[in-house]
Amino acid sequence: MHETGIEGYYTLKDGKKLRFGYTTGTCAAAAAKAAALMLATGQEVETVDIMTPKGIALNLEILEAKRDENSAVCAVKKFSGDDPDVTNGVLVYARAELKKEPGIEIDGGEGVGRVTKPGLKQNIGEAAINPVPMQMIRQEAERVAEDYGVTAGMKIVISIPAGVELAKRTFNPRLGIVGGISVLGTSGIVEPMSEAALVESIGLELRQKYALGCRRVIIAPGNYGTDFIRSLCYMEESELVKCSNYIGQTIDMAVETGFKELFFVSHIGKFIKVAGGIMNTHSKEADSRAELMAACALRAGCTAETALKILDCLTTDEMLKTLQEAGKLRETMAIAGERIDYYLNYRAKGQITIGALVFSNEQGILCTTGPAQAWLDELKEQTK
User: Fold this and answer.
1) 52: nearest Cα among 113, 125, 156, 133
2) Most buried of 5, 160, 214, 295, CB within 10 angstroms?
3) Residue 338 has pLDDT above 90, yes or no
């Protein structure tokens, strides 16, 4: 059996080894590299090496390779490890063909969704290939062209035929992505997630930090939050705890462990839900971002017309832009901050001091609650 290099990577949860996998984005990049190699060399490719953004090197098997004079097609089978993922086992195809125009062009084919509404990371009409996979595909094709002296341009088309049916089991239709699934991945690697095991691992991290003398803990739902706070002040990754979507359970465990202070740093996309008392922010539990943002906007004095525009937005970034255009961004975020503060403290029942810093990548800090601003100033001073 072919070894890909992922075999040695796993996480321990509930005493069980859960295997890592690799994303559709990694499969697309590997298939694109193989197709480009076949086009450049005229030889069949059986495996390709690819380095993922996470730093894990993979050697992936190439399936269904075909070539003619001006094009080549290759496929890579998706492996999700022990993560419950609807795309596990699907074939991700890449077709590479030469073109007269210089440069690398990337598009989606059968089973890759196409964007039909504004507010997503892609423009209307573009294939639903997220930025990191897009960059991975482009880099692999460019390296092949450079290494083998290919002077013509190249077009790469990513297809996932099974994606047509699989898309019906995702949120894509609701988001205005039609015809297939999205090509996803930020690290190139799939890390398995068991809800009970993940919550327990958060509790374990909290207990470890408390045992080391920590009495204030900084919590972020994911990489956006940790990256943002580290952009403001010096902080080791080990000083942060990621809570994923489990806001309420993290508060409960922090209280139970004995922490005195809890400092949340979150993107508005997660914490606007907290403004409605939602303590598990996973989309399968609740997705009322637009409704809650519109309610905060009305409380802040926005017109009904602005609220209706917010309700039609697909992303929180688009909502913030709408508020900015209405001249009510600051006031609305202040209202949202008040509601977030209320529900965080309602969950904690006065047993721990909680502050939250809420941000967006484009707007920066949107609001702070409780002592969060003072804590941030303190961390900045320590950085100096």
Assistant:
1) 133
2) 160
3) yes
Whole-number Å distance between alpha carbons of 126 and 117: 10
Question: Residue 87 pLDDT > 60, yes or no?
Answer: yes
Q: What is the dihedral of CA 5, 11, 16, 20, to 10 degrees?
A: -40
Domains and CATH numbers, the chain: 10-190 (3.30.2110.10), 195-383 (no CATH)
SS3 364: strand
The distance from CA 124 to its chain's CA centroid, rounded to whole angstroms, is 20
* Residue 295 and residue 264 in contact, taking contact as beta carbons nearer than 8 Å: no
Tens digits of per-residue pLDDT, 37-58? 999 999 999 999 999 999 999 9
Q: Which of 168, 141, 144, 169 is nearest to 157 (CA)?
A: 141
- For 348, the token pair is 């904690």
Q: Which of 109, 111, 84 is nearest to 96 (CA)?
A: 109
**Residue-wise over 7-45: b if at least 16 C-beta within 10 A, else e?**
eeebbebeeeebbbbbbbbbbbbbbbbbbbbbbbeeeeb
**Coil, strand or helix at 349:** coil
What was the pLDDT predicted at 197? Answer: 61
* Per-position b or e across 273-309, b if 16+ CB within 10 A of its CB: bbbbbbbebeeeebeebbebbbbbbbebebeeebbeb
The single-letter DSSP state of residue 88 is T
Mapping DSSP to helix (H, G, I), strand (E, B) and coil, where does residue 378 land?
helix
Q: What are the two backbone dihedrals, phi and then psi, of residue 59, each rounded to the nearest 5 degrees?
A: -125, 105
Mean pLDDT across the stretch 21-32? Answer: 97
Specify the pLDDT at position 185: 87
Count CB-CB contacts under 10 A for residue 383.
Answer: 10
pLDDT of residue 172: 82
Cα 285 from Cα 269, distance rounded (Å): 14
β partners of residue 369: 356
pLDDT tens-digit series, residues 212-239: 889 999 999 988 899 999 999 998 777 8
DSSP codes joined into one string, 275-303: TTT-SB--TTT---HHHHHHHHHHHTT--
pTM: 0.65
- The proportion of the chain whose per-residue pLDDT surpasses 90, expressed as a percent, equals 77
d(CA 47, CA 33): 10
